[in-house]
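QA checklist item 7 of 12: single-chain prediction sanity check.
[x] sequence parsed
[x] length recorded as 295
[x] structure emitted
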Amino acid sequence: MLVLTEYPRQCPPRAWPNLILSAKGNEVAYSQRSGPLSVKAVFSGVEVHEVNGARFAVNAHNYLILNQGQRYSSYAAPPGAIETLSIFFAPDFAQGVLGSLVSPSDRLLDSLLETQQVCFFERLYPHDQTVTPLLERIRYAVRTGGASAEWVEDQFGALLEHLLWAHRNLYKEILRMPPLRLATKTEIFRRLYRARDFMESTCHQRLTLGEIAKIACLSPHHFLRLFKTAFGETPHRFLVRLRLERTRVLLLESDRSVTDICFDSGFNSLGSFSSLFKRRYGYSPRALREKVHCQ
C-alpha cells in the first residue's frame, strides 16, 4: 500500500498496489494513461476526466469511478488551485472483496464479475451518507499522518463494499427502462448516464440535442424518450436546472455581473434567465444577491 501526498511526475509502476493519492496543486494536467479500478474525489476546484469522448467534471458534490484498464486524461478546469483524492485498488484486492459478497441469487452483483474483472458503471455519483464519509475519513487521516498501513487496508475493504452496494442500488433505475433484456437495459443505462454526466460537465456551453445524443450513441428521438423515462425530465429541463444551479452559486460566491453570469452559464437571454431564476428560487438574480449580502 502506498500513500502519496503530492502529484507524482508519472503513474506508479505497472504492478499497481493499493494506492492513495491525496494532493493539492495548481494547473494540474495528466496526459492519457490507463490505471486500475479507482475512485476520484475533489474537495476544492474542478478536475475534468476525459474518457473515450465522454467528459466527467469532478467537484465537491460528486465522485467518479473508473474501471480497471480504462484510459483517460485529466486536468483542472479552470486552471488553478485544486485538492484531489484518488483511491486506486490493486486488481486482486478488488476482485477478492467483491467476490466474497456475491450471492447466487444476486443478479446485479454477479454481473459485475462475469468477465472475471470488477466493472462498475463509470459515471459521476453524488455524495452520499455511505461512500462520502469514508472518503473524508481517508483524506483526514492522510493529511494528519494518522493513516497506518493496517488502518488503510481496512478502509479499502470498507470502501469497496460501500461502492458495491451503491452500484447495486442502480438496479432499480435500470428496471425502469423499457421492457427489454436486462443486458440491453444495462447498456442503455450506461449510455444515458454518460450523456447525462457530459451535460453536467459542460452545462455552461451551448449544447444541441443531437450533440448530446451522439455521446450516448443514440438517435435524438430515442435519446429524448429514454432520457425522460430514466430520469423523469427532458434533457432540456435537466440542462436548464443545472444552469440555474450554477448561476445561483456564482451569484452568491463571486462579484461578477448578473449579465456575465447569465451568458457564461449557457443562457441566451438575460430576460428569460431572470424569469426562470425567479420562478425557481422566488427571487430575481439581483434580489437574491442583495438579500444574502444584507444578512
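[x] summary fact logged: The chain has twelve helices and ten strands.
[ ] second reviewer sign-off
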